[in-house]
Write a structure and sequence with these properties.
This protein is α+β, with helices and mostly antiparallel strands. The protein has two domains: about 120 residues, Small protein B (Small Protein B, Chain: A, Beta Barrel); about 30 residues. About 35% of the residues lie in helices and about 30% in strands. The chain has five helices and seven strands, in the order H-E-H-E-H-E-E-E-H-E-E-H. A hairpin with a 2-residue loop joins strand 6 and strand 7.
């Protein structure tokens, strides 16, 4: 017989405390510079055991990563998750296609958007949400060179105006 404190618990998995919150493993900061970000989606990833361990160690790179739809399924490709240092012959290949888990309706919606032309699927970040590996995918449109310069100019102008207002505020004291 179990004690009253154990009432309602069905397995050992319920006793062990789970990870809670969000832990970002990797982010693609260059994506916001190179692309105009549209809709974003959260997708689960199908990973092997050594990939999860490597991600938990905080090792991943989204530099050349992209996503695509093939046969009604979404895939993530060219994302680098290095081999797990404690792994043996069961280690995973660092750059392989990984299946993404999304609802069918979301995949259809994304597929229609990317077929319009000029749109691509870019991974923005990989993170753990309550112990499960997730990837944030964005439907994005590539920026032209002059768009990138315009964005940089706007950012610089905003920074200068903030500095001027801050200096003015300090002089007024």
């Amino acid at each position: 017989m179990g004690c009253p404190a154990d009432a309602g618990r069905s397995s050992i998995g319920d006793i062990v405390p789970r990870e809670s919150g969000e832990k970002v493993v990797a982010s693609n900061r260059k994506a916001r510079h190179d692309y105009s970000i549209g809709d974003t989606y959260e997708a689960g990833m199908v990973l092997s055991g050594t990939e999860v361990k490597s991600l938990r160690a905080g090792r991943a790179s989204l530099i050349d990563g992209y996503a695509f739809i093939e046969g009604g399924e979404m895939w993530l490709d060219a994302v680098h998750i290095p081999e797990y240092s404690g792994g043996t012959w069961t280690n995973h290949p660092p750059r392989r296609k990984r299946k993404l888990l999304l609802h069918k309706q979301e995949i259809i919606k994304i597929s229609h958007k990317t077929k319009e032309g000029g749109y691509t699927l870019v991974p923005l970040r990989i993170y753990f949400l309550n112990g499960r590996a997730k990837v944030e995918i964005a439907v994005a449109k590539g920026k032209k060179e002059y768009d990138k310069r315009q964005t940089l100019r706007e950012r610089q102008d905003k920074r200068e105006s903030d500095r001027a207002m801050s200096a003015r505020r300090h002089l007024g004291d």
